């Protein structure tokens, strides 16, 4: 194995209420989770403190977004300082839904990542291509462009996990095979070696996201360059425990 610690994130997106979150937190608290895997829960901001108080300390909690400055006249936004204040230690940035629906640019996302890291949060930095981009043979070009934007702003990659999410594999019925996922992850390692350093290429964890389920997690987890998952819908279900334990 690579020596990189497996890392599984559950992104609840805009789902959950106090009752269902209490139930999920109980399932996770009672489960025998692989101690060799980092687990992080991306919780809706208004429930972060609630979830943090219900989850064991061994499970991290993440904001699903944050702005690029600490405070100010930015109605509706949340800063990394605020996330830290309520117990979050991670933030998910650059998710495909932020890019596609809310029109966040590569540059803005990179600025957010730079600020979050400076404030002491760990960052799950998302990248990934759309179906049109993949079918046009532009996958590597797109993920390299997104990585370039991050690289202009991130000097120290220690507290970064990259999540590769093929947008076309999220809710489309099309799924990336373990080989397709591994191919992009291997390209990303090569890109890191050539553009950042061999050390970062060897140590940076790259998660796969996009229709990860208990059924396909074990096969994906066997791939040498896949260091974990960013899980959407399945993270709201008990099967998330099996995904966390995919390497067990």
Descriptive overview:
With 248 residues, the chain is α/β, with parallel strands linked by helices. The chain has one domain (8-245): Alpha-Beta Barrel (TIM Barrel). Helices cover 41% and strands 17% of the residues. It has helices at 18-30, 48-54, 80-85, 96-100, 106-118, 131-135, 139-153, 178-195, 198-203, 214-221, 240-244, and strands spanning 6-11, 37-42, 59-63, 90-93, 122-127, 160-164, 205-209, 228-231. An eight-stranded parallel β-barrel has the order 1-2-3-4-5-6-7-8, surrounded by five helices. Helix 3 links the parallel strand 3 (59-63) and strand 4 (90-93). The chain is globular and about 45 Å long. The model has no long low-confidence stretch (mean pLDDT 96). It catalyses: D-glyceraldehyde 3-phosphate = dihydroxyacetone phosphate. Keywords: Gluconeogenesis, Glycolysis, Isomerase. It holds the Pfam family TIM.
Short structural summary:
The chain is an alpha/beta fold. It contains eleven helices and eight strands. It has an eight-stranded parallel beta barrel, surrounded by five helices.
CATH superfamily: Aldolase class I
Structural Rg: 17 Å
The end-to-end distance, rounded to whole angstroms, is: 13 Å
Supply the number of helical segments.
11
Average pLDDT works out at 96
Might you state the CATH topology name? TIM Barrel
Total domains, how many?
1
Low-confidence stretches: none
Question: What's the order of the H and E elements?
Answer: EHEHEHEHHEHHEHHEHEH
Count of strand segments: 8
Could you say what the CATH architecture is? Alpha-Beta Barrel
User: Strand order within the widest sheet?
Assistant: 1-2-3-4-5-6-7-8
Largest sheet: number of strands, sense, barrel closure: 8 strands, parallel, barrel
Q: Tell me the strand percentage band.
A: 15-25%
Q: Report helical residue fraction.
A: 40-55%
> Which term fits the overall shape?
globular
The helix/strand class is: alpha/beta
- Would you state the CATH class? Alpha Beta
Protein name: Triosephosphate isomerase
Catalytic activity: D-glyceraldehyde 3-phosphate = dihydroxyacetone phosphate
GO biological process, one term: glycolytic process
Organism: Drosophila mojavensis (Fruit fly)
């Amino acid at each position: 194995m690579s020596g990189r610690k497996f890392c599984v994130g559950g992104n609840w997106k805009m789902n959950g209420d106090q009752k269902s979150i209490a139930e999920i937190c109980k399932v996770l608290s009672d489960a025998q989770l692989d101690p060799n895997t980092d687990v992080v829960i991306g919780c809706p901001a208004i429930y972060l403190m609630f979830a943090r108080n219900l989850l064991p300390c061994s499970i991290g909690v993440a904001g699903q977004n944050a702005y690029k400055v600490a405070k100010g006249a930015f109605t509706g936004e949340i800063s990394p300082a605020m996330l830290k204040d309520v117990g979050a230690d991670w933030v998910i940035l650059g998710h495909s839904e932020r890019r596609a629906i809310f029109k966040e640019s590569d540059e803005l996302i990179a600025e957010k990542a730079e600020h979050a890291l400076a404030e002491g949060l760990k960052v799950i930095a998302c990248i990934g291509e759309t179906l049109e981009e993949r079918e046009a043979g532009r996958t590597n070009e797109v993920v390299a462009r997104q990585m370039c934007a991050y690289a202009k702003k991130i000097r120290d990659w220690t507290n970064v996990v990259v999540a590769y999410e093929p947008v076309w594999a999220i809710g489309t019925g099309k799924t990336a095979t373990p080989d397709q996922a591994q191919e992009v992850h291997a390209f990303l390692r090569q890109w890191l070696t050539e553009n950042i350093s061999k050390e970062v290429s060897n140590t940076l964890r790259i998660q796969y996201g996009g229709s990860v389920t208990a059924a396909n997690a074990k096969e994906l987890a066997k791939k040498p360059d896949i260091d974990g998952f960013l899980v959407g819908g399945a993270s709201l279900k008990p099967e998330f425990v099996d995904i966390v334990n995919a390497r067990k």
